[in-house]
């Protein structure tokens, strides 16, 4: 009778473990998601963050056969709505978020109660520079021309989020040159191209992948790039850097993903291992090429250290602008 009771208890424990939570583990203590995973994109469809989130979701599925990652756009608050959604999933390894510089700029600007420390850094996979663009008939041929115009008059600039990477770069330019721009915020980079074409704004900073079509067609023209060195991609090689044009500013946007805070080591290990497989997929390499990105990998604690260093560097810039 005693043996029967113990066996029954063992079955009960097994059933309880199998039915609880969002994740499954095998007898060896490994972990894997239970059911579909949700990749939150904290900006609207069509922009660089959306393209990045969808590319990483697809590459994760290829890296981990059987894994299903659904993308959900949770736009609003210059990214704060999406990050807050992940914040509410603390301890749930079935959620991820396509992250970029807003994870740092939002808290530093006082626009969010969370910080980078509330999330689990999984992977930084690429870097994305910015191109300053204007309408084809605009009276500017370089970024220096834009600065000169802003010194003597009004120049309207668009930003994909009031506290996004565009805002940081424009703030850096203002601090270095003494000009002031008229800022017009939008929710995503996908909204900036029609805004420039329609004359709602004069100038925008866009990731190369967001604007290559309009540059090829001639509807928009590029003035400079905000990377430290010129692009090696032929389509952008002729564009000088802001530094070459006398504007001592360089800044790139990183692309990667986070998991919620409060994960255990098995969950952390699963996602880091999955992330390391992403660059080996054809889908990831196609995304890099199609969107003119530079591959730049950091995982786990190294990605966390990178965020800390960038946080320190951004603090004086964003505190002056807030």
UniProtKB/TrEMBL annotation:
<feature type="signal peptide">
    <location>
        <begin position="1"/>
        <end position="23"/>
    </location>
</feature>
<dbReference type="InterPro" id="IPR005064">
    <property type="entry name" value="BUG"/>
</dbReference>
<comment type="similarity">
    <text>Belongs to the UPF0065 (bug) family.</text>
</comment>
<protein>
    <submittedName>
        <fullName>Tricarboxylic transport membrane protein</fullName>
    </submittedName>
</protein>
<dbReference type="InterPro" id="IPR042100">
    <property type="entry name" value="Bug_dom1"/>
</dbReference>
<dbReference type="Pfam" id="PF03401">
    <property type="entry name" value="TctC"/>
</dbReference>
<keyword id="KW-0732">Signal</keyword>
